[in-house]
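pls design
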């Protein structure tokens, strides 16, 4: 299977499940760099991977794990 080296802005939004505004916020803060090919803005797959690896992990408490396994989540805590 071929892996892409670069993604368009639309493809990146779909991959990250975020809107264009949020993606451009991340780009503006320097969290995700973009490359230009003519007028087209591209995001490197390697840059996306590095960004994702820097995201903080959230530790789930033991009681929360049981709820997740059972398919239950509280709407508010």
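designed seq:
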């Amino acid at each position: 299977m071929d892996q892409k080296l670069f993604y368009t802005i639309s493809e990146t939004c779909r991959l990250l499940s975020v809107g264009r505004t949020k993606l451009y916020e991340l780009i503006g803060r320097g969290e995700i760099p973009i490359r230009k090919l003519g007028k087209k803005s591209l995001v490197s797959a390697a840059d996306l991977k590095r960004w994702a690896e820097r995201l903080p992990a959230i530790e789930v408490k033991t009681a929360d794990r049981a709820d997740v396994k059972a398919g239950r989540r509280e709407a508010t805590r």
